[in-house]
């Protein structure tokens, strides 16, 4: 794949899985996250293992000014981004809507919704001008229905669906494509962040079920990106076999 792929939240989980998959297929990668150390280790791995071209763009996606400056600072050979994977996201806590911490929810809403919108606003005009591009948003099964302790997170992922659908409508008269990937249970660092570093609570989320991995989701993202140009995978809901909805899971 001779394309430039920009992945936000590439230092871990699904984003890192996407970086490995696209690198293995010959893509050039622009990788973003806040943790520069993890990004540098991944760059070294991708260069050594796949001979990939990798450009690091570490910044906090919530910081619009830095994001704009970072993208503007890209060398010319990196500017023509073909695929934007809006993946950076998180949740903190499992609090009830009337009891949670508004400052934590600001972080969740700013990261999962406003930053996705800001990255789209920064990258997509160039795609439109070049007449090619694909925006792949990482939504969630959580966006399909609210669940206990997930109110704000579920709302952000419902917003990712609406933003994906809206962008697809806005771009309907262009060759650009928009995809919303909606994973179910995927074992990454996500639950560790959700439970504020409590590894036992995080491990409990995946007890008695074989969860998906970041690499599994990366396969679906790559599939969506590699179908013929006249095809658009609008949405994919991908979950473990023993999961039926965001909350109905059979555990042994
Ligand atoms: N795991 C799951 O079960 C599911 C996850 N998802 C979604 O998948 C996406 C990836 O999550 P997942 O891989 O599971 O979790 P991880 O915690 O493993 O990865 C999250 C990534 O987002 C980055 N990130 C978080 N905040 C910021 C920020 N402000 N600026 C830049 N990067 C940021 C993190 O990097 P760093 O900390 O270095 O900045 C990290 O690379 C999220 O959008 C999540 O909502 C959807 C459905 C299921
Ligand atoms: C992290 C996710 O989006 C997951 N599907 C969940 O809500 O448990």
UniProtKB/TrEMBL annotation:
GO MF, any single term: oxidoreductase activity, acting on the CH-OH group of donors, NAD or NADP as acceptor
Domain of life: Bacteria
Keywords for the protein's UniProt record, in alphabetical order: Oxidoreductase
Protein name: Uncharacterized protein
Keyword Transferase: no
Cited InterPro entries: NAD(P)-bd_dom_sf, Sc_DH/Rdtase_CS, SDR_fam
Keyword Oxidoreductase attached: yes
């Amino acid at each position: 794949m001779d394309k430039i792929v920009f992945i936000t939240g590439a230092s871990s989980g699904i984003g890192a899985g996407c970086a490995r998959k696209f690198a293995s297929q010959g893509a050039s990668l622009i990788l973003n996250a806040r943790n520069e150390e993890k990004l540098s280790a991944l760059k070294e791995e991708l260069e050594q293992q796949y001979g990939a071209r990798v450009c690091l763009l570490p910044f906090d996606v919530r910081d619009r000014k830095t994001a704009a400056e970072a993208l503007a600072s890209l060398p010319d050979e990196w500017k023509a981004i073909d695929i934007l994977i809006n993946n950076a996201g998180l949740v903190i806590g499992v609090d009830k809507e009337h009891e949670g911490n508004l400052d934590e929810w600001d972080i969740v809403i700013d990261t999962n919704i406003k930053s996705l919108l800001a990255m789209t606003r920064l990258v997509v005009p160039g795609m439109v001008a070049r007449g090619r591009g694909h925006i792949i948003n990482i939504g969630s099964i959580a966006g399909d229905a609210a669940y206990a302790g997930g109110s704000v997170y579920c709302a952000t992922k419902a917003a990712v669906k609406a933003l994906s659908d809206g962008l697809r409508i806005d771009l309907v008269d262009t060759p650009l494509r928009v995809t919303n990937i909606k994973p179910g249970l995927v074992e990454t660092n996500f639950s560790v962040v959700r439970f504020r570093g409590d590894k036992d609570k995080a491990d409990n989320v995946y007890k008695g079920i074989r969860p998906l991995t970041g690499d599994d989701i990366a396969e679906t993202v790559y599939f969506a990106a590699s179908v013929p140009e006249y095809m658009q995978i609008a949405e994919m809901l991908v979950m473990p076999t023993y999961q039926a909805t965001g909350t109905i899971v059979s555990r042994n």
